[in-house]
Amino acid sequence: MDDEEQMEFIMEHYRHPHNSGVVENPTDEITEYNPVCGDAVKVSMLIKDNRVQDIRFVGRGCSISQASASILTDEARGKNIEELKKITEKEHLDSIGIKLGPSREKCALLSFNALKKILVKYGGE
Amino acid sequence: MAQWEKIKQDFPIFHSEKNRNLTYLDSAATSQKPKKVIDAVTYFYENYYSNVHRGIYSLSEIATDMYEKARENVSSFIGSASPEQVVFLRNTTEALNLLSYTLGRDLVAGDEVLISIMEHHSNIVPWQFLEERGIKVSYTDITEEGKLDMEDFSRKLTPRTRIVSMTQVSNLLGTINPVRVMGKMAHDNGSIFIVDGAQSVPHMKVDVRDIGCDFLAFSGHKMLGPSGIGVLYGKQEMLEEMHPFLGGGEMIRTVSTSGSTWNDVPLKFEAGTPNMEGAIGLSAAVDYLDEIGMDQVRDHEMDLIHYTLKLEEEYNIDDLVSYGPRNPDARGGVYSFNMGEIPPMDMDSQFRDNGMVIGSSVHPHDVSSSLDEADVAVRSGHHCAMPLNHRLGVVATSRASYYIYNTRNDVEKLFDQLEKIRKVYDHGR
């Protein structure tokens, strides 16, 4: 995909986010917040049989932060917890597909950080 | 307007191949540097670099002379009665911290400091430091139009108000505050009056004796000078009575194991080797601005903001809202706006709606990223004025701010791009 197509992919996720909402009786939910720009994402997740049974997010913020949460929750849904733990920051940023400066990377990582925190708590690490 | 195109040529940054199409609209954050300023700094480095006020050799004597000449130059630029009233510091932030630290020593629990809701964090946080000693910080509100609410100011000016510290021009709204009137009111009340000139001194004629302020703080980097050099102007007798701020070399007369005595003003406040090249660069910036004329600078920016508000109406972009007074006479060259307002985040109530709040709003970060793709540099965020964002009911704004190297073409480019962004975000929704 070229840059323009990739941007349209982001915009599509932003306008019509996947997995929006809150999981009922989640295993855990965590809100990540960037006080500088006010972007926020709450990720809630239900883990069953060591798999992501359900994962949803609600949030408010720029296209990158919200599209990133949409893409990440798609990626995480149904995954085995061990597999999910292996996803690196870089892999997540690559899945966004457009080059982001350091300030926009923070936007993209809000949902990622929320997810990682849930996994750490779940894993008891 | 050809004059301003020519002035733009004096700034090397716009010559480089990669910046050929750059529209720089972030001068309220920091300004670009003309060749003359860069040359003045280089000249000092290459010919006279040595420490000031110390060496008994000619190189150091010349350096000292250059540094003190810079002080004289800056002093007359702001209409100060004598160069001794000009203290060289790092920036406005350091000057205001100095004042909070030194003047704050004389304040007791129950005393008040009056500021406003439109202050930059640097004129808020240093005063909040005093709160732990029971000193109260009050905030003058703004009117719906974005002007200072003078009735509220008058109400909050109480017998316990010891210090009034106000910005002359808001870095977000552009509002020009009536500092002369406020200074008179403060003095009639027996309060010390401080002016934050970070956004005014670079853009209009500021005369400390005309304003009648006790102190004025401003930064060199916002007025074509180097970064790391700023100024605190103060009334002579007040500077003399004040306790020093930072301790160290230069600021002392004698040091012994039983105690120390202080150097004369202004050196009393200039501990350590100062930013000599910064002062010399700032002096060159002052010369450059004087050549153009501060009234000319002000007229040019007034024209740009007038044109901005005109284009805003002509383009009539959906959901575009802007802040601050509509009258260019009452406003500096600052244009803050949003493409649909996004309310500030409140951790307790943020997800009451339990879902996405996009609507037709384009987040300020998206606005500035999209503008950046077209080589238009604006700032997005809270502009170091979180309380004002909150007061306006928005999480952030985008801000275009002008200076002498901007022209009407830049304003046109801004609105052309904003119109394009609107289309991109509306597409497929």
Question: How would you explain this protein's 3D organization?
Answer:
- The complex is a heterodimer of chains A (125) and B (429).
- In chain A, a hairpin with a 4-residue loop joins strand 1 (28-34) and strand 2 (39-48).
- Chain A has one domain (3-123): Sufe protein. Chain: A.
- Chain A has helices at residues 3-15, 63-76, 81-86, 89-96, 102-123; strands spanning 28-34, 39-48, 51-60.
- Chain A contains 5 helices and 3 strands; from the N terminus they run αβββαααα.
- Chain A has a 3-stranded antiparallel sheet, with helices on one face.
- By secondary structure, chain A is of the alpha+beta class.
- By secondary structure, chain B is of the alpha/beta class.
- Chain B has 2 domains: 2-30 and 293-426, Aspartate Aminotransferase, domain 1 (Alpha-Beta Complex), CATH 3.90.1150.10; 37-290, 3-Layer(aba) Sandwich (Aspartate Aminotransferase, domain 2), CATH 3.40.640.
- Helices cover 37% and strands 15% of the residues of chain B.
- Chain B has 14 helices and 15 strands.
- Chain B has helices at residues 2-8, 35-47, 58-77, 92-104, 125-128, 150-156, 179-188, 208-211, 236-241, 276-292, 294-315, 364-373, 386-392, 408-426; strands at 23-24, 86-89, 112-116, 136-140, 161-167, 192-196, 215-219, 230-234, 252-256, 259-262, 320-322, 334-339, 376-377, 379-381, 397-401.
- In chain B, helix 2 (35-47) runs antiparallel to helix 10, helix 3 (58-77) packs across helix 10 (276-292) and helix 11 (294-315) runs parallel beside helix 14 (408-426).
- The interface between A and B is medium-sized, with 27 and 26 residues.
